[in-house]
Structure formats: structure tokens, C-alpha cells
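PROTEIN DESIGN WORKSHEET
SECTION A - STRUCTURE
LENGTH: 320
C-ALPHA CELLS:
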């Protein structure tokens, strides 16, 4: 039996869709209040199991008869206000999954993040060998994913059969305007600014495909960056604008402008109670130039990534 945590999430639901399309039965974890996405609703090959990864008593029963575990569940936020929840879910929750995989002799595929990777060496792309140098001042999400990944490495040193993937920014039409889809909403609504930053992007379908290939590969104790293309935000926003047939952003948001923006929005949030759309961490990441190598995952699986430009085209057509 295959167990998938975070089964109702953006990546988890796409993974389950691909697994069941192969005729494989899946036991999927969901919390009581989570809604099952239309993508995988009424699927007879899915056994839904209500449990929280931070509640070990309920989790133990979910592992009965399981041989493979895809750990997709995570809490994502770049708001430092959520630090306690980020650590509770992404570190403590992952530790529970690692321990239960070890106890039940399950093979684990853990979804980490590029946020857990280190910085590139001079004039080169970031690779799997670039381990993050511990920085207590780093944003809480990156720190939580780094510490969560360390729990998996701890399990590996204790004999756990596990593989780690570090996806870049995951995009796809089924995200709607949530998560990474918020970027598409921003541009569609006529946002006039872009930032001088860059990151890796990848279609959710390719992330799930790569995960399945790695689970079936004879490899253990390795990590793999899953990224299709590096994109400068100006080019990303321009391509999204073209897809929606709206005006592309033309003004560069300088770091000092972003500094004023996140401070002002933080002040406003104190009075409104609403989450600020720009935080200190999102402002910092938006002007960082980060480039990622996908050579290792291609060499291991032979995967051909969908170009990000094609993904943008498909997403904008779907969201129009």
C-alpha cells in the first residue's frame, strides 16, 4: 500500500492522480476540515484516512500494510508570525513520519524545498551539494524546511530507506489563485511593478512525475532538485501578462521601496487583522537572484521537463 500525506494539497492531489492513473491504490491522509479537490474526488482507488501528522496515535493506524510513503504535507508561509506553526508541522510532523517509516520498514520520499538548500558557489548554479549554512536569522519557512530535512537525514543515518526532493516554485492550473497562483492573480489584476530577482520554477505535473520515478528507482540516501527553468521575475510577469492579454509590469520595485511597503503593510495589519500581502521575507526573496541545476534528477530519471513558458500559457488559458 502507498501512503500519501497532504493528499488534499496542490502537489499531493496531483501525485495521487498520477498514481491512481497507473492503477495503484493509495491511502491518503487528510485533516477533518480539509476538502477533497475535484481532481481526485470520487476516485475508487483512494482510501481517505483522517489524521494529522502531529497526532502520532492516529498516524500509527495509517501505516498498517504500508510499504511506500510520499510525505507531501507541509505548512507554507513567509510570514514570521507563523513561525511556531511552521516548526510544529514541518519539523515535528516530519519527525513523526520518519519515525513511523522506520518502525514499519517503509520507503520514504520526502518533499523538502529549494528553501532548504545552500547558496551557489561563485559563478555556478545551486546544486544538491550546496548544504545550507545554519542561519538563525533566516526566514522561518526556510528554517523549518531545513530542520525538517535534517529529520529525514537523521532517519537515513539510522538505516531508513529514503529519498529527498527539493522542488523549486511549483506552478500549475489547479492551484487557481492560491499559493503560487497568487502571482498570476497579481499580474492579471494589473500590478505595475516587477522586482530584480530570479528563481527556479517547475510544473506540478513534472514534480509528481519525478517523485514517482525516484520512488521506483534503486536509489537511497540522496536528494534531488526538481526544477524546469530559472526565470527572472520581470520575464515571468511579462509572460503571465501576455497570457492574460493585459499590460505587463513596467516599473522596477527597488529594495528600499519594498522595505517601506512591508513595514507599512505590517502596521496596517495591526489595525485590520488581515495578513500583509508583502512581508519582510517575501520582500527579501523577491530581489534575490537564485539559479538551480536540474542535472542530477535528469541523469537519474531521464525526465524531460515541460518548459515554464508552456506551463504559464496553460495556466493563463485555464484561469481566463
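SECTION B - SEQUENCE
RESIDUE ASSIGNMENT:
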Amino acid at each position: 500500500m502507498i501512503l500519501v500525506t497532504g493528499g488534499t494539497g496542490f502537489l499531493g492531489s496531483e501525485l495521487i492522480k498520477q498514481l491512481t492513473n497507473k492503477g495503484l491504490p493509495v491511502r491518503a491522509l487528510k485533516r477533518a476540515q480539509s476538502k477533497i479537490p475535484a481532481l481526485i474526488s470520487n476516485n475508487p482507488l483512494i482510501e481517505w484516512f483522517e489524521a494529522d501528522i502531529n497526532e502520532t496515535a492516529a498516524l500509527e493506524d495509517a501505516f498498517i500494510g504500508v510499504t511506500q510513503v510520499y510525505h507531501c504535507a507541509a505548512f507554507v508561509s513567509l510570514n514570521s508570525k507563523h513561525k511556531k506553526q511552521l516548526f510544529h508541522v514541518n519539523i515535528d510532523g516530519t519527525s513523526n513520519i520518519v519515525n513511523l517509516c522506520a518502525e514499519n520498514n517503509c520507503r520514504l520520499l520526502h518533499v523538502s524545498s529549494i528553501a532548504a538548500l545552500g547558496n551557489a558557489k561563485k559563478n555556478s548554479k545551486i546544486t544538491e551539494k550546496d548544504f545550507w549554512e545554519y542561519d538563525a536569522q533566516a526566514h522561518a519557512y526556510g528554517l523549518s524546511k531545513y530542520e525538517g530535512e535534517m529529520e529525514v537525514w537523521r532517519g537515513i543515518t539510522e538505516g531508513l530507506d529514503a529519498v529527498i526532493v527539493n522542488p523549486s516554485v511549483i506552478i500549475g492550473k489547479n492551484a487557481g489563485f492560491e499559493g503560487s497562483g497568487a502571482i498570476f492573480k497579481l499580474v492579471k489584476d494589473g500590478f505595475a511593478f516587477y522586482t530584480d530577482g530570479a528563481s527556479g520554477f517547475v510544473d506540478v505535473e513534472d514534480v509528481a512525475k519525478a517523485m514517482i520515478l525516484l520512488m521506483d528507482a534503486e536509489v537511497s540516501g540522496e536528494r534531488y532538485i526538481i526544477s524546469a527553468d530559472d526565470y527572472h521575475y520581470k520575464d515571468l510577469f511579462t509572460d503571465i501578462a501576455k497570457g492574460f492579454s493585459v499590460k505587463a509590469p513596467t516599473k522596477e520595485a527597488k529594495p528600499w521601496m519594498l522595505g517601506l511597503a512591508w513595514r507599512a503593510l505590517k502596521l496596517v495589519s495591526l489595525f485590520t487583522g488581515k495578513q500583509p500581502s508583502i512581508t519582510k521575507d517575501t520582500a527579501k526573496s523577491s530581489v534575490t537572484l537564485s539559479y538551480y541545476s536540474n542535472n542530477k534528477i535528469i541523469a537519474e530519471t531521464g525526465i524531460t521537463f515541460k518548459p515554464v513558458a508552456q506551463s504559464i500559457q496553460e495556466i493563463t488559458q485555464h484561469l481566463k
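SECTION C - NOTES
Residues 175 and 274 are 22 Å apart (CA to CA).
The mean pLDDT is 85.
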